Amino acid sequence: MNHLQEWAASGVDHELTQLNVRALTGNSSYDYLFYADTLPRRNDGRLRDRILNRYHHLDQGGWWCSGVDLLTGNEDLWGCFKPITPRHSADRRKVIKYEHPPQAETGVFALRVPLHIAQKIAARYDHPYDAATHSDTAFWQWFADHPDIPLCLTEGAKKAGALLTAGFAAIALPGVNGGYRTPRNDHGERTGRSRLIPQLAKLAQRRPVYIVFDQDRKPHTIKAVNAAIRQTAYLLHQQECEVRIVSWDAQDGKGVDDLIAQMGQAEFEAAYREALPFETWKATTFTQLTHPAQISLNDRYIPPLSIPHQAQLIGIKSPKGTGKTQFLEKVVADAIARHQWVLVIGHRVRLVEDLCQRFGLQYISEVQTHPDGSTGGYGLCIDSLHPHSRASFNAADWQDGVVIIDEIEQVLWHGLNSSTCSGNRVAILKSFKTLMQNVLGGRGQVYVADADLSDVSIDYLRSLAGVDFTPFIVENRWQPTTEAWDVYHYSDPTPDRLVHDLEQHIRDGGKPFVCLSAQKVRSQWGTSNLEAYLCQQFPTLKILRIDSESLADATHPAAQCLEQLDVLLQQYDVVLTSPCLETGVSIDLRGHFTSVWGIAQGVQAENSVRQALSRVRENVSRHLWIAPFGFNTVGNGSTSIASLLDSGQRLTQLNIRLLQQSDLTGLDDLETGFQAESLLCWAQLAVRVNAAMIHYRDRVLAALRGEGHHLIPVLEPVPLPIAEHDPGQEPSPSLGDVVAEVRDRNYQDECSAIATAADLTTPDYQHLKKQLVKTPDQRRQVRKHDLKLRYGIEVTPDLVERDDQGWYQQLRLHYYLTLGRPYLTERDANLAQQMILQGDGAIFAPDFNRSQLGAVIGTLDVLGISTLLNNPQRQLRNTDADLVALQQLAIANRTFIKAALGVGIAKNASAVLILRRCLEQLGYGVQCIKCEGQRIPGKTKRSRSKRIRVYQIEPPNDGRAAVFTAWLQRETPCDPDGWPEQPTSLGLTPLDEGYEQLSLFA
Prior knowledge:
By secondary structure, this protein is an alpha/beta fold. It is about 40% helix and about 15% strand.
């Protein structure tokens, strides 16, 4: 194939190829390649023999490509040559397909652009292009003069040609690291900072840049490319460029030219539109596994494997439903046969119990120790992995055994971030680190498994162990073909149409398995309300609801469902599940369920949505509605680890400075940097969650596509002609309205049931609080008692509803900002003291920041909120001097404010909008009371005035004064965050669900 055919096969325009590529034969290639002054030559100017011998393959010819020198505008000396017969590297492992001028500084491929392509690019961005001034080299000067036009940066001249042909301004590097240089000495040691090469630096000034590198499947290549992208993007950011990363499925073509040639230009256009901002992309790289696999598979089910006894950390990455748990059963059986103890760690009680049953082990609550006090192993939740739990776990007692952690990614996130671990987080992390040191530093083994296993989990465990070893990775790259799901997905703003189709599916005799994001009665699309709605529509059908409430209700059919799940499920026509069944459960029932349906409202992590859909192993169709954006972000919501950790550190330091005003001891020796490796892992997982929330729907669908499933959009029906409407006839309610009506009715009934529940004595309350299994009446009694302790007033249905809407958080801020200010320091000091005692002088910064209110109140003070509250009758305008100062201060510190208050502020937010967002945290509003004209000098009579909106603070009328009175009557107002399991001399008592979350598994 000659060069014209080769470039045409890559989708490159014929005229563009002719301008930039030429065939070379015989010795002519030497003239193009060997121009560097530093090349070793003889006295007569001829190259040394060793050079000629290395490049003798050039004699057979090939093609040469070079473009425009962006620094001079002339023809570029630098370029590349593709020989017909390539040479091998010195170690013979790699074929060198392209030759670049040796010992010459690398450049970029800024190809000469023919007129019709220049006009095509200009038209794409609505810019005029003067054909009269065009020349082959003039395009790049025109491009430099238009910094609003994005630049595509790719690797390899042909790929730049393909992008230019498609109408995108593109230059190419000779390799992924070719965009920058790092100064080094003769020993290869770095002597200065990396910098962009001059040609790229000239073109990439305050301009959008899209990095379009190859998509590869080899782990070590992915790791290298990611590192190059990070460095290049960072340097481009220094040039004030907005950097985005374009990616696509590697099976559609490794390079962008392959993608365009094989899949069409439209496929690249879609990838270009979906390009991720650099920080968001960087967060997504934390989902990758780049550690090389010692065992690579492509099997439907993991076969029997021989794991070397000397392997310490064994990571198993295999798609869902491929037998990871079955493989671990054999691992456990072999360990027991060798008389080794086995410890199974999970994050949900029911799921760990199920694993223990499959492994032939006992759950911690059933463990009976041997006469000598030892045990052969058991399973427990990571919440109980500390000495103060009912397990009385002592990591020092566990050495040289086998640790099993299935669904490792979710287990670690639960241990590092969940509220159920917050009261004992430091103790849990200390125990976990000691366990990893004892097992991985001795003769034990740790098995971790996950369909989404990543470097984050592997590297975290290695860092905890503190010993240098290579993890043993088993990677199964099998993807479904005949077993791939058909995933019908809805792009509607609400799930109404999906539920309508679900309803019709049931009417047609279908038996669906439905995965939902929520369980609470107040959630419109949660398990409780959808169950009530479907029972209303299908009163004769058997419908099973599986969620945290039904599992904990001994009177409910779902209570013991995990023990014989397949047997129970086949008795029901419709099954509704909450995220309690998203991991660790395999439903192998065949011929019963006809479909799987899902409503993902943006609460779960994106991998949790996929986990839930895969619980039913049978290949039946999936039907899915996903919220476009998620809202369950972490910290300040950033996708940058540096930003997340920096704002958290600032918040910690501020809280400690405020605590120093109290008499709290131990602050000087406080270990605020406890377990840096755990904090880093928390941040890596957090930015991963935040990145997924930004593009929630797209991320879930992309991950499903990456698993090999078939995505089928459910198109909106063509609207029928609108019939003439009778003015006297009420329009039919939408399905969403009908479900909302069911929700409202059920919710009011639930609020009334809580308010009228029987009162508990203190001993009965404390007993029920710790009881895992509760009847609905007992659950309501506990909730009523919690509310009485929390607010100190009579519990009414209205109070229950207000509490569900976050009233307590609003009242707490308002109280400590005003009447309760004298108690603020004492309140924070008590909680900090308890955390310090529990952590033996150490705190985990994210938990500590969540427990403290000092920085939150201080931030509101600095913004002037307290002053504004003192004058609620004042008329407010965006032009008021104090509001302008508030606006400037808030925008300048918006990252910190997001971390402290949870309030997101846009760069262009008005002063009143910022004020409204802050006051919403207190339950206050801001209303527009009028508009007034403002004369503008120099304008015509018609346009001489500008309408100015005038606002006023709207205080809440919700009866909070009675609550404040009750709180003031207490020596120290109650607050649940971070409270201990038992009252202490600090005056803290367990009053609400915050306490329950802390002690539930202890």
